[in-house]
């Protein structure tokens, strides 16, 4: 099981216990405030397409813990979460190469 399997919720799912629900497509300022308050945050990004992936990337970078998405099993959303975690340094690389010479 990937570490982000529990982060993707189906559309319309209730917020997990103790999580702050930022709602649908919240502004970044609100998300920053909720993340800074310390509770895990839930957002509902755009319903589909490139906007969904872009919003998941931004919200993940801001520290959002849970995402309500149309298809929690979608590989593209999982790839975005992996990418953000790799850039932030919170996930080890999937593949490393030593001695490129």
Topology diagram in text:
Elements: E1 8-10, E2 20-24, H1 28-37, E3 41-44, H2 50-62, E4 66-69, H3 75-88
Helix pairs in contact: 2-3
Give a concise summary.
By secondary structure, the chain is of the alpha/beta class.
Structural class, please?
alpha/beta
Low-confidence stretches: none
Strand-residue proportion? 15-25%
Number of strands: 4
Biggest sheet overview: 4 strands, parallel
Q: State the assembly state of the protein chains.
A: single chain
Give the N-to-C terminal Cα separation: 35 Å
Average pLDDT: 91
N to C succession of SSEs: EEHEHEH
Number of helices: 3
Radius of gyration over C-alpha positions, nearest whole angstrom: 14 Å
As laid out across the biggest beta sheet, the strand order is: 1-4-3-2
- Envelope shape: globular
Helix content: 25-40%
Describe what you observe in this structure.
By secondary structure, the protein is of the alpha/beta class. It has a domain of 65 residues. 37% of the residues lie in helices and 16% in strands. The chain has a four-stranded parallel sheet, covered by helices on one side. Helix 1 links the parallel strand 2 and strand 3. Helix 2 packs parallel to helix 3. The chain is globular, with a radius of gyration of 14 Å. The N and C termini lie far apart (35 Å). The mean pLDDT is 91.
